Amino acid sequence: MNQILKHTTIFVLGWAVMACDPEIDAVPNPQPGEADFSTYVALGNSLTAGYADNALYREAQEKSYPAILAMQFSEVGGGEFKQPLVPEGNGVSGSGSGKLELAIIGGSPFPVPTTGDPNVFGTPVNGPGPYNNLGVPGAKAENLITPGYGSDQGNPFFARFASAPTTTVVADAIAQNPTFFTLWIGNNDVLGYATSGGEGETITDQADFGQAINGIVGALKQGNPAIGGAIANIVDITKIPFFNVVPWNAFALESQGQVDQLTAGFAAQIDPAVSSEVEKGAREQITFVVANQAVTDQVRTGVAQEVVTGFIFQREFEAAKVNGATDEEAEAEANTYLGSAEGQQELSETVMTVLSEEPPAELQPLVDQVDAAMETDDIQNTIEQKTEALIEALNNDMLPPEQADLLNAAIDSIYMTPETQAGIEAEVGNQIAQLKAAGFYPVFETGPNGFVVEVDLEVSPTGLKQITANEKMLLSFASIGEDEFNPEAGLVLVPDQYALDASEIAAIEEARTSFNNTLQTTATSSGFAFVDIADLFDQVANNPLIIDGTTYSVEFVTGNIFSLDGVHLTQAGYAIVANEFIKAINATYDSSVSPVSNFNQFTTVKLP
Amino acid sequence: MRKKIFTLLAAILVSGSSFAAGFQVLLQGNRQTGMGNVGVGLRPDASSLFFNPGAIGMMNNNSIAVGFNPIFSKNVYYDSEVLNSTYTAETDNPLGTPFYAYGVFGPADSNFKFGLGVYTPYGSSVNWEEGWKGENQLDEIQLAAIYFQPTVSYKISDNLSIGAGFVYMTGGVNLQRSLPIASQSGPATVELDGNASGIGFNAGILFMPSEKFSIGFNYRSKVSAEVEDGDVTFNVPEAAAALFEANKFNAELPLPSNTTLGLVFYPNDQLTLSVEGTLVGWSVYEELRFDWNAPVNGERAAVSPRNYENSVTLRIGGEYMATDALALRAGFYYDETPVQEGYMTPETPDSDRLGFTAGLGYALNEKFQLDLSFLFIEGKEREMTRQQAIEAGTIDPATGSQDVIPGTYKLRAFIPGVGLSYNF
Questions:
Q1: Where would you tag: which of A60, A179, B153, B323 has the fewest CB atoms within 10 A of its CB?
Q2: How far is CA B73 from CA A454, B126, B410, in A?
Q3: Which residues are A560's β-sheet partners?
Q4: Cβ–Cβ of B85/A20 closer than 8 Å?
């Protein structure tokens, strides 16, 4: 009986183990379609390398989006995918620090850098290449085809795994005879400018960018005319946390006292300058009026002299002719009269009468003649030149003292009139209102206020710009030193590299739009998949994704997509990107690569 | 500490997969298990304490019976919600071993019989693979209930007897899931652990109008398993700790009533055939609610709709006495799921089930009887879409709160069992 029991038990248990694995018939068998995933290479920048939390470190590298793609490709004929792995640990950033981690500071979590590991710049720990993931942190489009980018003078993130110092990223890709590639490049062509608040690197020229993309894709197609691939575009940088963590108006003032103090402070700085500018302007205007009047009077006297001389001459000439004189005799008589004391007196009296304020009616023709002469271009030019010369002479103390005193007295008397003073005051008020409206003169109230950024004088006459809702503070500002910004110590001005103003944002958007057109055109004209990552993030920014009950949004830390540097992604974020690649690839190549379904295997920002 | 030890013991002894629809466990007699789980109308044995206390009065001997049934079960999940997905996950359910122990005694010349039954009619043990897609909904659940049932039965006449037992239920629940929080100090999790108790009754009647036919009726009442001051342990990073203040919870899980009518035919001395139908009163399970002693994420309770509906189980089984000592048994049953569209949670990814059974009984001698049974359960492949879950309220698209993981599920279980009875 014991034997029977024993054998029965063995039979039963054995059958149980085999029969107990239920299978679901509906699970599909993924197909590669028209694509050949056997040798896949990934080209790009830090996002492709798996950079996260402001460092290249192993844990994030292992879940880079190309690694995720390769994992999914392995079900449809994808081969080995080798990444240039760095040692386990904190990794390293371009500036030498390690990955950012949240630490509780003052009761709330804050990203702080760990100690960087310089060994990251050593050769990959998983042996020699070739490497399928050729993402190089910091690379711009043209860097992928720049020989020497992997040399000591190039980029240390490429130098660590470049096949030779003289090679290019694309050459190292082609050497592997790739059958499929992904290309996500161009972010640094705008981002370097953007993350430095428009103060550091410049935006890549649009034509240069197009040339670089053509160079990359052309080389890949030359290497293998049958190559398949996917090209992704550039995300709207204003959607990413780096530009949204610090609100534009996070400059909070709690009390009216603070408001008053700041207002008074900026008034003390700006108002005198505005007054002085307006007063200077007013005085210049009055000086011009006075000088112009003086010159005009002088010129008019001369003109009147000529007109009246002509009039008397003509009268005497005609009188002589009536008496039977010849033209010559008449002319001589007239000149004789004009030269006589009597003629001179008449001349002088008539000139004075013509120039008087209410000349008699019989002299009106002469007055009209003088007026007409004064209107001629010659006279006007003369007046203008003489006025300028007079002002210059006055300003440079080159006039005879009596004349200068006279002019200055005239100027002062006008300047000191209540009308002038009221005008000056009104203009000062008007100027200040305009500065305030343009954000060049900060305005404060209790509660949130826009930060006051130091900008170029070309941008703002005050050198200040109080930013508004369509302008951005950078995440780097959150770590600013107290020696740079400390309202309690009176340091309320934000250095320019911590903010993007509207014109800088517009420049970035213009370039990005052009770059994205280039990327899309290149992809579609070659039959490659076009991966609209920009659209993906636009949508996520408006409507967060909810996957298995977890929300994925563009919020910093809690949004689960962006890592602690606010630019690069978390593992989950990279998985979302990988799924977007897969969607585009399946649509283009009639394939059915399985997307990532279980996001729990991809970590997000780790809380302390 | 005592409580802890008890819970641990209970988990080891009585945890089982959900191997009848819902989380009902129908393994209370290896003879009956082999016969497709029919048992209400059968001529009594000690297992009738469970199947039909009314039948005990007909017994003409005393009996002690024990048995246990190791459960090998596996659930699989496939993400049919995501286009082209090949994702699957499966459970690694711990070996559950429901057991029973019955004792029936009565004076030889009396119409009364007395009995005590200890058995495990409800339980569940589901342990999904680590890090699976639904880990934030459920990693692991252990649900166990032990019923203690003192019983009195009275034989009214030679062909009619009635009986009833008082039921005291004790048991425990342990539920573990991950929290959607990444932590520097390992995975963030929550564990609920509590002891439950409740009371009810089990009553029945057996009528044997002829040698060829008997009919039984059984009603097992609902038992409300109430957990008071269960422990809830949040393992969360310091930065999130303020969100999870609770350390105790209360909950109530209704264990439903069963109303069964069984008909038995005895075509000849060797053969017994039976058909049975049961109505299971699952509609009492409207929601799963945990009340916290302090706010969790701002809420004082976690409520998840279940809205089970009453379900029907139909069984057919037979026994053939090959020799005086050897009985051969076989049966089949259809077990309707109480879980409606959109409510298929990872703790009970339930579907209609088919049960195929076989068994044999062997009289070792006049007093000892050995019963072996084999039960194979095939759950129907069942798909739940996100839309169904939204309509059911188990997914709230506005907040993203989600009690279920849409997709396709399937269960298979294999349960060998052995029972030994001593009749005197």
A1: B323
A2: 69, 9, 11
A3: A553
A4: no
Burial of A287 (0-12, 13-18, 19+ CB in 10 A): buried
- B 402-421 residues with CB < 8 A to A: 402, 405, 408, 410-414, 416
Note whether A607 contacts B240, CB cutoff 8 Å: yes
Find the angle CA(B32)-CA(B35)-CA(B41) to the nearest 5 degrees.
60
CA distance B267 to A166: 94
Q: Pull the structure tokens for residue B335.
A: 């077990």
Q: How far apart are CA A3 and CA A591, in angstroms?
A: 56
State the Cα–Cα distance between residues A288 and A291, nearest whole angstrom: 5
Mark yes or no for CB contact B364/A109 under 8 Å. Answer: no
pTM for the full model? Answer: 0.84
Q: Phi and psi for B209 in degrees, rounded to 5?
A: -70, -25
Half-sphere exposure of B8 (CA within 13 A, CB side): 5
Q: Is the dihedral of CA B10, B16, B17, B20 positive or negative?
A: negative
The position carrying tokens 């959109």 is B342
| Residue with token string 């009647």 | B205
Put simply, whether A4 touches B (Cβ < 8 Å) is no
- Two structure tokens written together for B30: 């290896």
Out of A318-332, B17-31, B189-203, pick the least confident: B17-31
CA distances from residue B308 to A71, A292, B343, B377 in whole angstroms, order as listed: 40, 100, 8, 21
pLDDT of residue B35: 95
Cβ-Cβ contacts under 8 Å for A126 (sequence gap 6 or more)? A82, A83, A84, A85
Say whether the ipTM exceeds 0.95: no
For A553, which DSSP code? B
Model pLDDT for residues A143-176, shown as the tens digit of each residue = 999 999 999 899 999 999 999 999 999 999 999 9
Q: Helix (H, G, I), strand (E, B), or coil: what is residue A38? A: coil
CA distance A585 to chain B (A): 12
Residues 206-265 of B with CB under 8 A from A: 237-240
Q: Which of A1, A9, A594 sits opposite B84 (nearest CB)?
A: A594
**Amino acid, res. B194:** G
- Those of residues 175-204 in B touching chain A at CB distance below 8 A are 178, 180-184
Q: What is the DSSP string of A322-340?
A: HTT--HHHHHHHHHHHHHS
- Tell me the chain B residues in contact with residue A597 when contact means C-beta distances shorter than 8 Å: 79, 82, 85, 87, 133
List chain B residues with CB under 8 Å of A595.
Answer: 82-85
HEC string of B191-231? Answer: EEEEEEEEEEEEEEEEEEEECCEEEEEEEECCEEEEEEEEE
- Convert the pLDDT of each residue in A473-522 to its tens digit: 998 888 888 888 888 888 889 998 899 888 889 999 999 999 999 999 99
CA distances from A332 to A306, A320, A483 (A): 18, 10, 91
